[in-house]
Amino acid sequence: MSFCAINGEVWQDRTTFRPPHLRPIGYVFKKSCLFAHLSVRRNLLCAAPKREPMPIAFDEMIELVGVVPPLDRSPVHLSAGERQRVAIGRALLSQPRVLLMDEPLATLDRWAKHGFCQVLNA
User: Fold this and answer.
1) Interatomic CA distance for residues 111 and 122, integer angstroms
2) Among 3, 13, 66, 69, which has the highest number of CB atoms less than 10 A from its own CB?
């Protein structure tokens, strides 16, 4: 028998099965997977819930992960670290209950890693 519950909410047991596509899970890959045809802003917002207000405000998330304007740039013109910050921001804006990350800080510089570690430990 399988069982999965997150914060007391049962996703799977003998009588309950929430399909994977309806489970609020965010994932950040080791190598950022951004949509090349979308701007930085649109990459960030594509996973955000459409309801207002968002629990994590867009501007707060930009500051938190250190995404640098202009947001109308293509991801092709970003460094690996900047792309990874956008990927982390997109995952956070999706309002996940669970956030899975595969070496998300590997491409970030020492200063950015230190900042993220402080945020995650808060």
Assistant:
1) 17
2) 66
Q: Are 100 and 26 in contact (CB under 8 A)?
A: yes
In whole angstroms, give the CA distance from residue 76 to residue 20. Answer: 30
Rounded mean pLDDT, 94-101: 88
pLDDT tens digits along 54-69: 667 888 888 888 888 8
102, amino acid identity: D
| Whole-number Å distance between alpha carbons of 38 and 45 | 10
Q: And the tokens for 20?
A: 């994977």
- For the stretch 14-40, pLDDT in tens is 999 999 889 989 999 888 889 999 999
- For the chain, the domains span 27-116
Token pair 């109308």 is found at 72
